[in-house]
Amino acid sequence: MIYSQDYARSIDDVRVIVRHAKLDHKNLTNTAQAIYYPRDEPGHDLGNIKLLEVDEHILQAVENNDGVCFKGALNEKVVFCTESRTYEVKEAEISNSLLLVNGLKLAQATSRSPIKSPKGGVNTSMDSSMEEEEDAETIDTIDDVERREVVKVFHDYFELRQVKPKYRKIIDLLRLTRYAGPENEHLIDRSLLFRFGQLLDTVQCSKDEFHEGLKKYRAIEVDDRVRMLDIEYEYRVLTLLLGVLLENSWELDAIDKDTTLDAMQGIIPYEIVNGTFDVYTIPSERVPGRWQYREDMVCALFAEKILQNGLKFHIDEFLVTWQEALPEGFEVSEKYLRGIGIVDREGSVPCVRGLNEADLPMNLLVRLSTLFRTKERWNLEQIEPYIECFATPAVGVTSILAKYTRSLVVKGVRIYVSKH
What we know:
One of its GO terms (cellular component) is Ctf18 RFC-like complex. The chain is α+β, with helices and mostly antiparallel strands. It is built from 14 helices and 15 strands.
C-alpha cells in the first residue's frame, strides 16, 4: 500500500515485494491488486459510512426490504428496530484497522489457471510435481496489476444487542392527555395528542412490539389520536359493557359484539366502546363469531381501581372486596395483581398494597432501592414484573438480581434482599 496518489505500482514493484516477503510464487495468482488510501479531498474517506454488525433476523429484513430504522431523541440512547425486534446500539472498537475497498476481488477471481479455478479452488496437489520441474527455475505468475481505492478506514463499528421494547414513553406521553369523557375534552391541550404514526416514530420499539404495548397499556384511538383512558372513566365503561353481558344472560365465552356496541349507543362514544371492547376481549374458542372477556385484564382493572390510592388492605378483606366487585363468573387470583400490587405475608398482618410498575423509576438501581424500601424481602415471582423490562434475551431477571441484590434461601424458597 502506498500513500501517494501520483504513483501507480507496476508489475516490477509487485515482484520486488514478493521477493522481499519471501512468498512462494506457486501460491500466487495472476492478478495483483494494489491498494491506495483515500484521497484527502471531498468525496473520499466518507464519514457517513458506518459498519453495522447484524444477525440473521436483521439480514433477512434488509434483504426482503422490510422496514428497519434507528430511533432515539436527544437525551435517549439510540436503538435499532426491525418490524418485530428492538436492538440496543453500542459502539465497539476494531483491534486492527479495517479497510473498505470497492471492487476488491477474492483470490480465485484473480486467477486464470485451471489448476486454481473458482470451481476447484487452489489445487495444492500439483505443488510437489511443479517443485520437481522447477528446482532451479523461478516462474512469476503475476502478470497484471489492478488499482483498488480504499473508500474508508474503519476503527470501530456498531454492535447490536436485542433488548426488550422501551414502552415507558407510551405511558409518559399518553398520561398527559388521558381521556375522561367528551365533556372533559375542552381541558385537553390538543398539541400534546399523537397520531398512531407519530407515536410509533417516537417510542423506541418495533412496530409489532408497539401494537403489543398499546394493548398492554390499554390505549385506543379516539378521533385519529392515540389515547389512554382515565381509570375512573375506563372502569365506568368496562362496568357498562359487563352489564350488557349480565342483561343478556350470555355465557362468558359467547358474547355478541354487535349487540354490546348497540346497547352503548347514546351512552358512551362509539370509538371508546369499540376500542375498550377490543382491548378486553378475545375471540371465543368454543363459539365461532362470538367473544369472551379476558379474565386477567378485567380482574386487574378492578384491583387497580381498589388499590389506586395507595391504600393498604388486609389480604382477606381485599380478596372479598375484589371478588364482590366483579360480575358473576369471574374469579380473583393473586396472579392478576402482577405489576400493579404486591402481597406481603411476612409482616404481623398479611396485607396487599398498590404498586404500579408504570409508576417506578426507569433507572435500575433507583428502582431496586424503591422496591426494597417498599418491601424488604421478595421472591422471584413477586419482583419479576418490576424488573423484567431491564432484561434482555442474553441477561434474564435472575442474572440481574444476582448482580444487584443479595439472595438467601428460606424454607426452600430463594428470597432477594437489598445489597446495602
